[in-house]
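Checklist before submission:
- one chain only
- standard amino acids only
- sequence pasted in full

Submission:
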Amino acid sequence: MDKTLKLSLITGIIITSFSIAFYFVYFLPNKDKRRSNAIKECFVKATESKDLAIRTDNDVIKEFRLPITRSDYDVVFNNKYNDCIKASGY
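Returned file contents:
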């Protein structure tokens, strides 16, 4: 092979190696960090929504004496959490 072809082949191999190394060393770990941060953020938002629903409903329960179970609040939490996860793309 002539020198130009060898040089091009070596350059291609080096660029490919750096691309693969970048993917495994930088991109994948950061993707996991972003995902875990998004999950934590969604958990906090859902918990805040659930707490707000509990505080709001406590006033209504005291005034009208309505039976509201804990599972109603769990549904609020699960809906908010799932909506947030879907919106964040994870």
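Reviewer check: The chain is about 90% helix and 0% strand.
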